[in-house]
Structures are given as structure tokens and as C-alpha cells.
């Protein structure tokens, strides 16, 4: 039986939710408003009334080639996500349906790597990438993004796979399905919502990764995060142009998140307590 909630409580929670949402969204809104101001307006102080000029976007696109870092971001985020899924799906299957006494320890160890400060391993990774000739390459950054997001991907898929009845896979084995057929034709179609949400979330995480993409690239493989960083160095005091560069970098992922929010929510709640 559902808990009865008073009308006053509903109104209060709704207002609180909208306030929190507006607070979270306000930095993006203000960056957009600043991007359509003139430089004197941007440095004059806080104001929500821009002049509406698009001069900053033209200037940014003229000074920096936007298309190349944009394509690098697409290749790196999509490529690292596909590679992570190819590794994580078999790993999550093994942990969910053939667990050992060390399975949970391995999962916790994988997640603990996300808690480690990235700067602690910056020098070793930089030297390894330099010696292997992977600095400023799409392949090298794809491997790095795959490694740093793989624990999250494995953990999410593991939680989704655990909700699938093992009897279905046993029935497939009794019908003569091989391990490959079991994973590809039985398990994967049943976990499509979870896999889709994991894919979308990993694309967003890879797109927004800035620490490694800035330090392991210069020009050839630099994504949009490096595009912003390179622009902010000489243009640090020009807030309008810097805001325009930031909006050009985050706009694609904002659009993706907006149109895929239903799938994200559906996948992230898959396996939750109903």
C-alpha cells in the first residue's frame, strides 16, 4: 500500500526539486548568457541581460578549428565505450552467473581504483605512453578512457545481469547453446535497457574527461576538453569568448543527454527495488 502524502508535502517537495534543479542548471545558463555578451558586458559584473551578439562564436571558430577536436571527442567517447562493453559484458556475465568467493572482492578492488587520485599515477602513465609512442594519439586516449571507465561499466552490467533469471540461461544450455550464443543471443537482448544506459553514461563520462585528455595530448588527438583548455590560456581574461568556447564544447553532450534521458532513467532504475 502506497504511503499517503499530503498536498502540502507534494507542493513543498516539488518546489524544493525545482530549486535544486535550477541551482544545478544555472552555471550552464549563465555561461550561455555570457557567451552572447560583448567583452565589456562580460567583465562589467553579474547580469542576466545580454546584448545577444554571436560575435564570440565567430571569433572562437576563427581562432580555433572546432571540427577536429569535435570529431576527436566523438571517436574517443564512442570508441572507448564500445571497447569497454566488449570487455565488460563477458566479465559481468562471469561475475553474475559463475561467481567465486573472490568475486565481490574483485568488484570492490575495481571500484577502489576510481577512488584513487589520478594525479598519483600521472608520471608512470605519461612515461609509458611516451615510450610506447601513444602520446597525442586517438588509440592511446581510447585505451586510457576505456581503462578509467571500465570499473563503472563492469559494475553496472553486473547489477543488471544479476536481475536476469539464471534458469533462462540454463535452458539455453540444455538446448545446446554455446557460451558465445548464450551471451550474444540470450543474455544481451534481455539486458538491452541496462546495456543502453551503460553505453550512454560511459559516452558522457568519456566526453567530459579532462584530466587525461589534456595531459596526454597536444594537437592531433586533442578533444573538446583540450580545445577549451588551449583557448583559456591565451584568452583567460576574455570571459565572453571563453564562455562561447565552453558552450560549443558542452552543447553536443547536453543535446545527447536531453534526448536520451528517458533511456538513461529506464536503464539506471533497471534492477532497482520496485
From TrEMBL:
It is found in: Cell membrane. InterPro entries: BP-dep_ABC_trans_perm (IPR050901), MetI-like (IPR000515), MetI-like_sf (IPR035906). It comes from the Bacteria. It holds the Pfam family BPD_transp_1. The chain crosses the membrane at residues 12-33, 74-94, 106-127, 139-161, 182-207, 238-259. Residues 70-260 form the ABC transmembrane type-1 domain. It is a multi-pass membrane protein. Keywords: Cell membrane, Membrane, Transmembrane, Transmembrane helix, Transport. The keyword Repressor does not apply. Its main location: membrane. Belongs to the binding-protein-dependent transport system permease family. PANTHER family: INNER MEMBRANE ABC TRANSPORTER PERMEASE PROTEIN YCJP, MALTOSE TRANSPORT SYSTEM PERMEASE-RELATED. This is Carbohydrate ABC transporter permease. It comes from Agrobacterium cavarae. The lineage of its organism: Bacteria, Pseudomonadati, Pseudomonadota, Alphaproteobacteria, Hyphomicrobiales.
Amino acid at each position: 500500500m502506497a504511503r499517503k502524502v499530503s498536498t502540502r508535502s507534494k507542493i513543498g517537495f516539488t518546489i524544493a526539486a525545482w530549486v535544486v534543479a535550477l541551482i544545478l542548471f544555472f552555471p550552464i545558463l549563465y555561461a550561455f548568457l555570457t557567451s552572447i555578451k560583448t567583452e565589456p558586458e562580460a567583465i562589467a559584473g553579474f547580469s542576466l541581460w545580454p546584448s545577444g551578439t554571436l560575435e564570440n562564436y565567430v571569433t572562437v571558430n576563427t581562432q580555433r578549428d572546432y571540427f577536429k577536436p569535435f570529431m576527436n571527442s566523438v571517436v574517443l567517447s564512442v570508441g572507448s565505450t564500445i571497447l569497454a562493453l566488449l570487455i565488460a559484458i563477458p566479465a559481468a556475465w562471469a561475475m553474475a552467473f559463475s561467481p567465486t568467493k573472490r568475486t565481490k572482492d574483485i568488484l570492490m578492488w575495481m571500484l577502489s581504483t576510481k577512488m584513487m587520485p589520478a594525479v598519483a599515477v600521472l608520471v608512470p602513465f605519461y612515461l609509458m605512453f611516451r615510450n610506447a609512442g601513444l602520446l597525442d594519439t586517438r588509440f592511446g586516449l581510447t585505451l586510457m578512457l576505456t581503462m578509467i571507465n571500465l570499473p563503472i561499466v563492469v559494475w553496472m552490467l553486473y547489477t543488471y545481469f544479476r536481475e536476469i533469471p539464471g534458469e533462462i540461461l540454463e535452458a539455453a544450455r540444455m538446448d545446446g547453446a554455446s557460451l558465445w550464443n548464450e551471451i550474444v543471443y540470450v543474455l544481451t537482448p534481455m539486458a538491452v535497457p541496462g546495456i543502453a544506459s551503460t553505453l550512454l553514461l560511459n559516452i558522457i563520462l568519456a566526453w567530459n574527461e579532462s584530466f587525461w585528455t589534456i595531459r596526454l595530448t597536444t594537437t592531433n588527438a586533442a578533444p573538446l576538453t583540450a580545445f577549451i583548455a588551449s583557448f583559456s590560456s591565451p584568452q583567460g581574461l576574455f570571459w565572453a569568448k571563453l564562455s562561447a568556447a565552453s558552450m560549443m564544447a558542452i552543447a553536443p553532450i547536453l543535446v545527447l543527454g536531453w534526448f536520451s534521458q528517458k533511456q538513461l532513467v529506464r536503464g539506471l532504475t533497471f534492477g532497482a527495488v520496485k
